[in-house]
Amino acid sequence: MKSISRSVTSNQLTVHDDLATVVNKHLNSEFKKPIAAHTTDAYQAAIAQINNRKLILDSGCGNGKSTLAIANQYPDAFVIGIDKSSHRIGKLSSHNQSDAAAQNYTIIRADLIDFWRLSANDNLQLHRHFILYPNPWPKKHHLKRRWHGSPVFKQLLKLGGQLELRSNWPIYINEFAQALTLAGFDSRSSKISMQQDNGITDFETKYHLSGQTLWQLTANLDISSNIKV
Ligand SMILES: C[S@@+](CC[C@H](N)C(=O)[O-])C[C@H]1O[C@@H](n2cnc3c(N)ncnc32)[C@H](O)[C@@H]1O
Fold first, then answer.
1. pTM of the complete model beyond 0.90
2. Cα atoms in the Cβ-side hemisphere of radius 13 Å centred on 187
3. Ligand 1 pocket residues where CB is under 6 Å
4. Boundaries of every domain in the chain
5. pLDDT score, position 91
């Protein structure tokens, strides 16, 4: 992927004024939207393959390049790459599901809003959770579409594990950190120093080659690390 990518532009220049109100409202309410049958099927087929291994999610995995890299990095874990776009999932030429069946990962098409809720309802606990370059939804009125502004944020937190979030929009990282604080979790944010031009995802490579600064946030979401509990 060699195309040039422009930095995120937004009519929002700092953390959203309504962040705390929105996050607190979602942390204190139930998310009742019905769950789509196709995600339930994909979820059940994926978790049937865990076989007592540690579980890692690559949420919004795009073409799955990062899912393969993570599976190689954690050979004892089982990695599920999830994306709602069949177009993106279909793009990685080195990936095919029959190979995946013999290995320690699978890549599925599903909506994360439903996948995370199903996982949280089943009390699944993650070893690690990667959310790499989520759509920033940078317009001010898009706050509730960002993961930390969404009603599903509570379920995302319930999944636990070591979270790694990456973004090319620092406001996304700052807002996510503040949302975690409201929920009782500490986090660390830093610039990513790229050692080479080949990123863990194609978006990372594209942003890096376009000269953009990239950011990451890490947090331990295990309930024992929650300072409010
Ligand atoms: C900017 S792309 C990044 C993809 C990949 N992580 C990368 O860095 O190359 C964001 C991805 O999130 C996926 N996505 C957004 N909302 C989603 C949802 N509700 N459920 C599943 N995937 C979603 C999109 O389809 C898209 O592939």
1. yes
2. 28
3. 60-62, 82-85, 88, 111-113, 132-135, 201-204
4. 19-225
5. 73
